[in-house]
Amino acid sequence: MIKQTGTGLVIRLAATYVGAVIGAGFASGQEILQFFILYGYKGLLGALVSAVLFAYLGAMALYLGVKLRAGSYQELLSYLMGPWAGKFMDILSLFMLVGGLGVMLSGSGAVVQEYLGLPQWVGVGVALLAVFFVIMHGLTGLLNVNVILVPVKLAAVCLIAGLALAARGLPAELPFINQHGVGGHWLWSSLLYVSFNMVVPVAVLSSMGRSIDKRTGIYAGILGGLGLGFAVAMVTIAGLAFYPHVTNYEVPMLYMASGVSASLRPVFALLIWVAILTTAIANAHGFASRLAPAGGKRYRFFGFAVCLAVLPLTLLDFSFLVRLLYPVFGYAGMALFFSLLLVPLWKFCKR
């Protein structure tokens, strides 16, 4: 396969990385509230740590994918964790991708039902059709749809956060209240946040090892990681401007958007749906590329099959699925997080 290069590919890869992370939890603001805002201004230190880690880990996943000429994340896991632990993490990651896809499709139905008053199955069906369309076009379809949708949702998140901050301004003093924050400490919370959000990107990015060169992968990983860190910081700052009232809402970004202008509500609903869609696409691609690294008919078959297999999950409540699965995903991802963070450095020093 001829390797692709160029600035356009860097941007598409970076957009794919961002799209795999910014899902319903991020766009709603609930993730940022729990992992960063509840730590007051120290949450901004956590945002800085997450930006550095996202940039490093994204670049490392792409670099190793190219080095190993990986067609799926299985090769990367074996390299990082050895054959036995890598096989266990491989199976665990498959379940996490399936569960994440089910959560995203359920979330799509919930958004359509809540904001448009339409039956939940309409939102699920539209999202399914969009995922099917991208899977039909393989890796090219994944990259192209992300380069269109991801900048839109990233810009929308930052715009809403910026307008909210301009409307309120930061308070001179902010109580440091962290008893409800994830992890109990701002630093551990930021590490958990990155761990929680790296499983899907690693599955997606490492599958591109046969299609890009090392320099392109490194630049894309850094660009995508810094973009994620910037978005985290913007939402955190905006949340601090609305603190402590923002802590009382299930969808903090909606509260902030409504505080600026009522007309932002439908924009925010669209933002949530786009965020859900791009993450659902990333999950489906990660699963299909693992079972059919070469793409083609088998790739499309597994992509379609996993979408149909998770339909029973869409009958469950979206918030219930988030509460049930997300904490499990976060702690399960710690093994991959520390392996990707430390093993390449250890092997380099040993060599």
TrEMBL record:
Keywords, in A-Z order: Membrane, Transmembrane, Transmembrane helix
Transmembrane intervals: 9-27, 47-70, 91-112, 118-136, 143-166, 186-206, 218-243, 263-287, 299-322, 328-346
InterPro entries with a match to the protein in the record: YkvI-like
Entry keyword Membrane: yes
Domain of life: Bacteria
Presence of the UniProt keyword Membrane in the record: yes
Annotated protein name in UniProt: Uncharacterized membrane protein YkvI
Species per Swiss-Prot/TrEMBL record: Desulforamulus putei DSM 12395
Lineage: Bacteria, Bacillati, Bacillota, Clostridia, Eubacteriales
